Amino acid sequence: MGKKLLIHNDHVPNIHTYEVYRAHGGYASVEKALKTMTPDQITDEVKKSGLRGRGGAGFPTGLKWSFLAKPEGVERYLVCNADESEPGTFKDRYLMERHPHALVEGMITSSYALGAKTCYIYIRGEYFYVSRILETAIKEAYAAGMLGKNILGTDYSLDMYVQVGGGAYICGEETALLESLEGKRGNPRIKPPFPAVAGLWGCPTVVNNVETIAAVVPIVNMGGEEYAKIGVGKSTGTKLISASGHINKPGVYEIELGITVEDFIYSEEYCGGIRNGKKMKAVVAGGSSVPILPTDLILKTAKGEPRLMTYESLGDGGFQTGTMLGSGGFIVMDEDTSIVKNLYTFTRFYHHESCGQCSPCREGTGWMEKILQKFISGTANESDVDLLWDIQSKIEGKTICPLGEAAAWPVAAAIRHFKQEFIDVAKKKEFKDVKHYFRLNNLVETA
Amino acid sequence: MGSQVHGTQHFDQAKRAEIKFSDAAMATVQEMITRYPAGKQKSALLPVLHIAQAEFGGWLSPETMDYVASVLHIKPIEVFEVASFYSMYNLKPVGKCTFEVCQTSSCWLNGAEDIVRYIEKKLNIKVGETTKDGMFTLKVAECLGSCGTAPMLQCGASFHENLTFEKVDNLIEKYKNENRLKSYTDLDYQNTL
Ligand SMILES: Cc1cc2nc3c(=O)[nH]c(=O)nc-3n(C[C@H](O)[C@H](O)[C@H](O)COP(=O)(O)O)c2cc1C
Ligand code: SF4
Ligand code: FES
To answer: What is the pLDDT of residues A394-414, one digit of tens each?
Structure first.
């Protein structure tokens, strides 16, 4: 069994309540931090831990914190990114639903480190019921003196609020999230300035993922150096992976970074192998945005080394033969899966979720969806494969935010590794009977 | 005043005069405004729109949006801008229960399409339509964070996961009997994670 630091108390009944959480060692990091450490010491421990952002990009958390501007007399904010909308990703939901106090505790300790007097958890609107669980936990923490004025008798005071979104993937992008938190459309901002300098209401702000903030708890408790001993190289600590698709045991697993992909997919401790005795065809390892890899390349790198669940190993070979750890949304596809159709669901998603500010993203995602629709309705030609390739190649690096890239990468990877399948579909004109649907928000007519 | 809302719907001054939050809803709204620094009450807009949608029939009419603008002391266009951006706000009337079936990758791999077709047949409506009795609206949605318990649909605040045709039958039966608006706060969720 691998080491668990975030959901180790999964088996404990009522661990979502303050009382039980506290009885199992909860809020020790708040006591330690507020009573024995300076804010800068905490940031140092986070730096030493090697913790990298768990929202997808993997940016070193301690470094990000050290960029926070601290002008006199100006409020600073910590905002937790609980927007979790990347297809294939449901680990933050699991953590918040079952261990809400782990997030609340992490928010308190992190806010103290950053000198924030108010912090917000921005959660996607569809997770409304989870926001209720968090609000209950926050209420309990206030009642226990872990939030509010003079926490644990120190001179540190903190308020924490949950804000629900309105349904928009783009609000996971940190500047779009801040716009949304200000009550506006989720249009990403042009950077710089970065949120660390001008974020929420123009004030210095740190935005971190749910899991990143929860990981601060064990880091403060055990010390950064101890935490860094877990994992391999620059991939330290544990990571929550949400596994779905054609596996025997879909679910959320906490792994030690560094186990092999093969172990993760086939061992009984984790995914338990492919369903119905089928063979595996492909894996999307880190949420819909990262390149899909065929079986041989997900299990072994191009150099023939076993692929590990780490940022570096999954990235080995660049986008030619590698992928990314991303958000930890691990989607497994069996031998009967149509890569073309799966790609269509992704591309439709990005088209739907593009905020529309940049033409390469707004138009490009729409064109790609239309062409893929031709494939699945049996009207595509072989030349459409090249057209698709051409469009995706013109998005990367030309947009305000990375959603454009997130839409282009899956298309590029699917064609790179499964080009023949696209050609076959075009030739055989398969999928004639397949219907497809469009999300008709705001267009719903009463019949 | 009314002409400032450029929705797809007609603005009715008489209807607008009738719109008012219940005391309980108003108290929640006022509390929400205190969560933000003075003068930043616009930040409460998204949650307040959810409350408004739940209070006033499951959708945001131009009159409702105008009212929300007046409560938050912002311009009606600021409300419409937001309401039309986010997918959870309905700008046209919907049925009492809106089924949103996830159709993204993991759900598709697990038969989401069959679920959509089954509901279409069973309710005799197409995606985007509402049943004649105003009971059900069928929509498709993108990944709702239930990929490990696919296929799934959301109705109100509830996630219905690991769907089968039988589960869909039971759900329709149950909601027909309950016969009330399932707003986003309405939770009969069974934890399956
Ligand atoms: C289109 C898009 C969607 C994103 N969605 C999320 C999300 O749902 N949750 C998240 O934590 N980060 C998301 N991110 C990454 C955030 O912008 C940001 O990098 C992250 O919240 C930083 O936190 P971390 O350093 O703790 O990972 C998204 C980025 C993009 C471009
Ligand atoms: S890349 Fe797409 S989502 Fe991002 S700002 Fe541009 S249009 Fe909006
Ligand atoms: S793909 Fe349907 S919930 Fe994620």
So the answer is: 999 999 999 999 999 999 999
Element (H, E) at A102: helix A100-114
Flag whether residue A14 sits within 8 Å of chain B, measured between CB atoms.
Answer: no
Give the model confidence (pLDDT) of A291-323 as tens digits: 999 999 999 999 999 999 999 999 999 999 999
Q: What is the pTM of this model?
A: 0.95
- Confirm if A172 and A86 have CB atoms less than 8 A apart: yes
B131 Cβ under 8 Å from any chain A Cβ: yes
List B residues 69-98 in contact with A (Cβ-Cβ < 8 A).
72, 74, 78, 81-82, 84-95
Crossing angle of helices B62-72 and B45-55, in 10° steps, is: 140
Q: What is the atom index within ligand 2 of the atom nearest the CA of A357?
A: 7
B139/A435 Cβ within 8 A = no
A24 assigned to some structural domain: yes
% chain A with pLDDT above 90: 93
Domain of residue A436, CATH code: 1.20.1440.230
Calpha distance A123→A130 (Å, rounded): 8
Is residue A100 over pLDDT 70?
A: yes
Asked if the C-beta of B123 comes within 8 angstroms of chain A's C-beta atoms, the answer is: no
Interface of A with B in 21-80 (CB under 8 A): 75
Q: Which one of B109, B113, B126, B190 makes the best mutation probe of the A interface by having the most chain A beta carbons within 10 Å? A: B109
Kindly give the distance from the C-alpha atom of residue A88 to the centroid of ligand 3, in angstroms, as a whole number: 6
- Per 3-state DSSP, chain A is made up of helix, strand and coil in percentages (nearest 5) of 45, 15, 40
Q: How does pLDDT run across A119-143, given as a tens digit for each residue?
A: 999 999 999 999 999 999 999 999 9
pLDDT in tens, B154-165: 999 999 999 999
Residues A115 and A259 in one domain: no
**What single letter denotes the amino acid at residue A139?**
K
CA–CA distance, A351 with A124 (Å, rounded to integer): 19
Q: Residues B89, B90, B92, CA angle at the centre, nearest 5°?
A: 160
Instruction: Name the A residues in 143-202 with CB < 8 Å from any B CB.
Output: 159, 161, 163-169, 180-186, 201
ipTM: 0.95
Domain with CATH 3.40.30.10 in chain B: 97-192
Domain boundaries B97-192, corresponding CATH code: 3.40.30.10
Least confident of A16-30, A423-437, B75-89, B147-161: A423-437
